[in-house]
Amino acid sequence: MSLDRPPAAEADAGHARAPRPLRFAARTGWDLSGNSLASVLAEARGAGRALVDFTESNPTRCGIVETAHLIAPLGEPRGARYSPLPLGDPAARAAVSRYYRERGLDVNPSSVVLTASTSEAYGWLLKLLAERGDDVLVPVPSYPLLEYLACLEDVALTPYPLLREEGWRIDLGALERAAGERTRAVVLVHPNNPTGSFVRRDDAAALEAWAGERGLALIVDEVFGDYAHGDLAPDRLPSFAGSRQALTFVLSGLSKVMALPQLKLGWIAVSGPPELAAAALERLEVIADTYLSVGTPVQLALPEILASRAPVQRAILSRVQANLAALDAAIEAHAGGAVRRLPIDGGWYATLEVPRVHDEDGWVELLVRDEGIIVHPGYFFDMPRDGFLVVGLLLDPDVFAEAALRLAGRIARAISGE
């Protein structure tokens, strides 16, 4: 349709043209069709079956600990006034610094940048570090969210392996070989999700030195950093926060630290060579000022919320450890020797290595159809080969223990040919 004449006049003049179809950006051209698991779940739910969802990762749905009182500080009257500060309210940034100091880590408040979430933090850092077509090294296995975040920033992901036989240790040689001329950063998920592995101290030191020499930044996702299962082994690094050799961005937030994902507040702790860190913070301030995405009420409430974290984290760790013990007992009772729960240092997930009498989709569908149990296939996390299932550890302990027995029993029967 012409913009300079009425539609009727254009038609009368014989100039009518078919409308041009609207085009969406290629970066959003994901395959949105349902997979076989979605069909099985839809069938089960349509039949009204009760399902036990071992993929549940939302702590607000698991009845772990009462956190309603932590929402009350959002009513602070000062929150009625909007006074935007790109890097975040000074008292809130100081609260993040105090959180690290109480963990024995030195993070200056001036190096803290508040974000609306860890996902947003990734997006800002990819904007900061990478041009279109550059690449970032990411661990496998790991959580699939990174693929979408990188896609939205037109950045490529290049995988580097974690070695299962060595407790998911970083394969430093493979990581170095994966780096190319357009590599701009290395992502670490620490502890890893879903393997629960913390980086070794000597690997961290070697990686920092190499990244500094290559002009690469480290992006370290530590959202599960408070959830080590007991004392870490001496060779494990508790956190990358604090003074580092390479330019380093440590990510975390209230979603996991306080089990409050609905409050939408995360942060980046910047460290590294002083000139580099200062330049990064200057540019991050412009990015943050462009979005101004963190709500004022949650920033004002942050000091009080973070000061209340101890009982929340104790409750979560107690739940995780109880369910991990129940899972181990169920495997020992029904499938000992045939199913192996892989060792983990921390986090909210456990990985099961199962015989390949079915592929992972086959196992997932079997458990839904026969037992009403939902688990993650290992390939969801880019496991190195077929034969893994991943379960979350947040469910009510009685529900979890009963379902774990049924899960282990059904796997054992499938192995014997039933």
UniProtKB/TrEMBL annotation:
<keyword id="KW-0808">Transferase</keyword>
<dbReference type="Pfam" id="PF00155">
    <property type="entry name" value="Aminotran_1_2"/>
</dbReference>
<dbReference type="InterPro" id="IPR015424">
    <property type="entry name" value="PyrdxlP-dep_Trfase"/>
</dbReference>
<dbReference type="InterPro" id="IPR015422">
    <property type="entry name" value="PyrdxlP-dep_Trfase_small"/>
</dbReference>
<feature type="domain" description="Aminotransferase class I/classII large">
    <location>
        <begin position="86"/>
        <end position="385"/>
    </location>
</feature>
<dbReference type="InterPro" id="IPR015421">
    <property type="entry name" value="PyrdxlP-dep_Trfase_major"/>
</dbReference>
<keyword id="KW-0032">Aminotransferase</keyword>
<protein>
    <submittedName>
        <fullName>Pyridoxal phosphate-dependent aminotransferase</fullName>
    </submittedName>
</protein>
<dbReference type="GO" id="GO:0008483">
    <property type="term" value="F:transaminase activity"/>
</dbReference>
<dbReference type="InterPro" id="IPR004839">
    <property type="entry name" value="Aminotransferase_I/II_large"/>
</dbReference>
